[in-house]
Structure formats: C-alpha cells, structure tokens
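Reviewers asked in the last cycle whether our approach scales beyond single polypeptides. To address this, we selected a multi-component target totalling 225 residues and predicted its structure end to end. The input consisted of the following lines:
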Amino acid sequence: EAAVTQSPRNKVTVTGGNVTLSCRQTNSHNYMYWYRQDTGHGLRLIHYSYGAGNLQIGDVPDGYKATRTTQEDFFLLLELASPSQTSLYFCASSDRQTEVFFGKGTRLTVV
Amino acid sequence: KTQVEQSPQSLVVRQGENCVLQCNYSVTPDNHLRWFKQDTGKGLVSLTVLVDQKDKTSNGRYSATLDKDAKHSTLHITATLLDDTATYICVVGDRGSALGRLHFGAGTQLIVIP
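The resulting structure, written as structure tokens, was:
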C-alpha cells in the first residue's frame, strides 16, 4: 500500500524560529512535493524534487527551503518562521500525475 | 489567477438527500481531473479520476462526469450520510507525467445534517 508519512503532525513555533518538516515515502517514487493549504485557497506548491539531491522551485517558495536527502526523504525548512507561514502542509509523492499520494498533513502554527 | 473554480463554496443538505458539486477550470492542457475528499484538517482521499474527453465514473454513492470541451466536471453524491461531511476538492492535472502541475480548486465544504 502506498505510504507517505509526515512528521510532526502538529507544530507550534515562535516568530523567527527554525522549523523542519519531514516527509518519507515508501512508494519508490521519484517525485516528491511540498504544498501548503490555506482557507479559501487550493493547495499551493512550495517546492518539489525529482530525485535525491534535486530541488525545483514551486509557485510559493518565498521563505522556504527544501532538501531531498534520499529517494525516500524530503524536508521542508523554515529558517525564520513568520505568522504568514501558519498553515496546513502536505507532502506528496508520485511518478505519474494520475498516481499521486498525499501524507496526512502537518499543522504548523507560528505565534 | 485561479484556474480551477468550484461551486458552491459551501452546501448544507439533510441526510439521505442527493447533492451535486461543480468544478469549472481553465487549465490547458487538461490531461485528467480528480476529485478528493478531505475531512477537516486531515489528508486527501481520492474519490475518482476522469481522463477521457467526455468521461463518467462511478464509485459507490459517488459518481462524476467530465466534459473537456466545456472544461467542466460534476461530482454527484447520492443518499448522503453524516460521514460525507467534508471538503471536496477538484484537481486538474495538465500532464500525464509527474513533470506536469496539479491545479487545485479551493474546495466545496459539504455539511450533512440529520
């Protein structure tokens, strides 16, 4: 069964804080994605990667870094967190658009 | 500019009633369209995917249509249950390969009341 695991599931940090969101997939997929979801908006693409060591910029990358250390692991880094980054974050993996699997989400609150 | 528009924004129905959710889009090319169900604060669960120029799918109480000429899709839910309360998200893929982009609607919030 396809699996995308995100951690932590919930995180609270202070403005200016340093946060790392983790994502691991066991689907042997080449592509991994980070999205954010905010009320009134559809999911918006932050960064994505098509393999270990690769990083591609998405549609809303400002304030975020990402790193793909292995085929399985994709990390999203917020080095100076701001309240505007309070959101629900989703990781996904795929090798074809018609087969995309999402994690359960990480709720991040920046106070 | 929003390329995937869903309507209504929210909808309240009584348990047992049927409902129809709409999705209009301007994404080009439009390789496929998928409907997801998202419980509050939870992940996305795929309900169905439509691929053909004029396509229809059925998955239990969920059925969907796609008309690529009109760039329009509908999701029908029959005999609604309280557990159908969720946000339903329409997603259009512009390629078949993973290099393409997925374009997300903002969702329709469905509330089913007793």
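Chain B touches chain A at residues 2, 4, 31-32, 34, 41-44, 49, 51, 89, 91, 93, 95-107 (CB under 8 Å). We regard this as preliminary and will revisit it once experimental data from Aim 1 are available.
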